[in-house]
Amino acid sequence: MKFIKWLLLAVVTLFIALALYLTVIFDPNDFKPQIVDAVKKQTGRDLLINQDLSWTFFPAIGISLGDITLSNPQGFEHSTMVSVDGIVAEVALLPLLSKEVDIAQLNLDGLTVNLDTYKDGRSSFDGLTSTKNKQADDAVNEQAPANVQLSRLNIGGIAITNTQINLYDEASGKVQVFSLDELNLGVFSLGQLADLSYKFSASMPDVKLVSEGIGQLTVSEDLKQISLSDFAISNTIKGEGIPNKAMTVDLRTQVTVNTQDQRVALMLERLAIDSITASGKFDIHYGAAVPNVIASLAFDDINLDNLLPKSEAAEATEATQATETKQEEPDLTGLKAVNLALDLSIKSIVVNNLTTNNWLMKLVLKEGVLDVKQLSAELYQGTLTSSARLDGRQAVANYRFDSKISGVKVLPLLTDAAEVDLLAGTANFNITGNGQSLISDNIKRNLMAKGQFSVTDGALYGVNIPQMLRDAKAKLSGDLNATSTGEKKTDFTSLTGSFSLAKGVFNNPDLAMASPLIRLGGQGDANIITQALDYKLTTSVVGSLKGQGGNERDALYGVEIPFAITGTMSEPEFKLDTAALFDAKLKQETDKAKDKLKDELLKKLGGS
User: Fold this and answer.
1) Beta bridge partners of 103
2) Strands, DSSP E only, in 274-381?
3) Which CB contacts under 8 angstroms, 24+ apart, belong to 61-69?
4) How far apart are CA 471 and CA 488, in angstroms?
5) Cis peptide leading into residue 59 (ω within 30°)
6) For helices 32-43 and 131-143, angle between their N-to-C axes, nearest 10 degrees
7) Longest C-alpha distance within the chain, in Å?
8) Strand, coil or helix: what is 552?
9) Lowest mean pLDDT across 133-147, 179-193, 285-299, 440-454
10) How far is it, in rounded angstroms, from Cα 566 to Cα 471?
11) 399 has a pLDDT exceeding 90
């Protein structure tokens, strides 16, 4: 028992002796002038340590300092670049002799960073990354051992509070504020799980963000692998440009960083953007000059109508603003910043009441070129398949595509997409095209395309061609008061044609429509810039206008009648050329009379 008492007494005596040495003989403030001079020499900046450095002795020996500032270059709006209210580091001394680091607690409070950027290129970093400093760093790196080995690293905890970064940009006149309200790391040892949590906020001109996260951190004993497990992050984003002015983004993930292979593996267990949910994984190789990413994402149902509601007034305002604002080519240089291979699937998408299902996409982004190798979806009892390429290596991007639609029900598609009931039937459609520029007006002007279409067992709404012919027939019979009655709808068995698109004009040289009653054919143009329609067609009667299956040959049988479609795509106008009809009928009757007279003459002359 006496031995234990004497041992405790010896330990206490040594501790007191060490404290007296550190506080009386060894004064850390003696190094303040040297530190300040070194910073001034290397950066030209003023470092101020206004609070005396002091020792701490419980629960471990450490050092405390505070009220530290580092100036910005002279002439800057904000005189201080970095300021710190207080730093406390508590370290066990004896384990250091065995390359063991025991940090009882590390606290950093009140870090503020002001970063100024000016139009002439000056910034707060001027002088901090000089050639002299780089050469000195390289020399240190050459002398340093290739691998730092620690027998043990234990941290009782880290607490970083009230950290703020302010970004001032003179060119844009904008101020952005990023705040790390708190970052806490629990008891930490190499190879062991440690609790990690943070709370972060950002205030930008158009957006405000609040983010909170919690998970567990593991660093391997050889320092070659860092893992975040069960990492849950909750984000709230607000701003005028955000859908509904507010959005929540939550995710739960597992992250592993392999520093030796320079690789990050991210497992996205759940991503929730308001009502949209997804899962996926990312494999990132960051060692090369351009990172390589292999990713897969699977989304559930996506209803963009709920995410992006717009009133008619808002749409009108946006249209006006788009007209008044000068359009510029989008900056696609970011496409060169990463190489990406992505597999994407989406259960369903609803946008502007348009419903599609089972989206599958495979895309590759490499050296600024985006290749959509495969894109497929199910829509309105049919399918869409497509491939495309976007080349963003030049200031003005160019693109090409090849798309095919098979077995799609046209009427519900047009009704849901544009509230238009112009056409019904089952459609097959293919188109290939290319163009330059991603400005909307230039897309319309520069797009070059060609393709074919066919619609079977359908109807053309807004016009009843058989009824128009009945009215014309009645007028030929002397009933000049005949008027159209009944539904404005023309049934057909097939509607086919090919088309080309150039300089904003859609040209269809071979439109052909067939039904049991009539045939319709011709050519026309549709201007996608002005929306104007100009079709010149010819219709002819092949059955009885009394109805399908009529036995009596119609009086207009075989007569070709000019038919025109004008107006706009949203409000087409259909017109039957009755004057030409009368001329055609008169010619038909004249030809009949000539034939009858010829027959009579032949009979009189003894012919047969």
Assistant:
1) 91, 155
2) 276-285, 292-303, 339-351, 354-366, 369-379
3) 61/18, 61/22, 61/90, 61/91, 61/92, 61/93, 62/88, 62/89, 62/90, 62/91, 62/104, 62/105, 63/28, 63/88, 63/89, 64/88, 64/89
4) 13
5) yes
6) 120
7) 159
8) coil
9) 133-147
10) 21
11) yes
Tell me which of 27-31, 512-516, 532-536 is least confident: 27-31
Exposure letters 378-414 (e unless 16+ CB within 10 A, then b)? bbbebebebbbbbbbeeeebbbebebbbeebbbbbbb
Report whether 495 contacts 520 (CB < 8 A). no
Q: How far apart are CA 81 and CA 115, in angstroms?
A: 6
**C-alpha pair distances (Å), 433 with each of 384, 428, 430, 446:** 16, 17, 10, 10
Give the DSSP letter of residue 38.
H
pLDDT digits (tens, 9 = 90+) for 245-270: 889 999 999 999 998 899 999 999 99
pTM of the model: 0.71
pLDDT at residue number 221:
85
DSSP E strand stretches across 110-207: 112-117, 152-155, 158-169, 174-185, 188-189, 194-203
Phi–psi pair at 32, nearest 5 degrees: -55, -50
Structure tokens at 341: 């291979």
The shares of helix, strand and coil residues in the chain, as percent rounded to the nearest 5, are 25, 50, 25
14 CA to centre of own chain: 65
Structure tokens at 427: 């459609």
H helices of 343-426, where? 410-418
Mean pLDDT of 280-307: 92
Q: Which residues in 32-53 are b (16+ Cβ under 10 Å) and which e? A: beeeeeebeeebebebebeeeb
Strand, helix or coil at 140?
helix
Identify the CA nearest to 460 among candidates 484, 430, 491, 485: 491
**Helix or strand (DSSP H, E) at 575:** strand 572-576
Write the pLDDT tens digit of every residue in 181-226.
898 988 888 888 999 999 999 988 888 999 999 999 999 988 889 9
Name which of 25, 24, 77, 32 is nearest 52 in CA terms: 32
Q: Within 10 A of 175 (CB to CB), how many other CB atoms are there? A: 12
pLDDT tens sequence across 546-582 = 544 334 445 566 667 788 889 988 788 888 766 655 5
Count of residues making up the chain: 608
Q: How many helices (H) and strands (E) does the chain have?
A: 9, 30
Least confident segment among 42-56, 84-98, 274-288, 395-409: 84-98
pLDDT at site 106: 76
Q: Under a CB-based contact definition with an 8 Å cutoff, are residues 277 and 302 in contact?
A: no
Q: Mean pLDDT across the chain, nearest whole number? A: 79
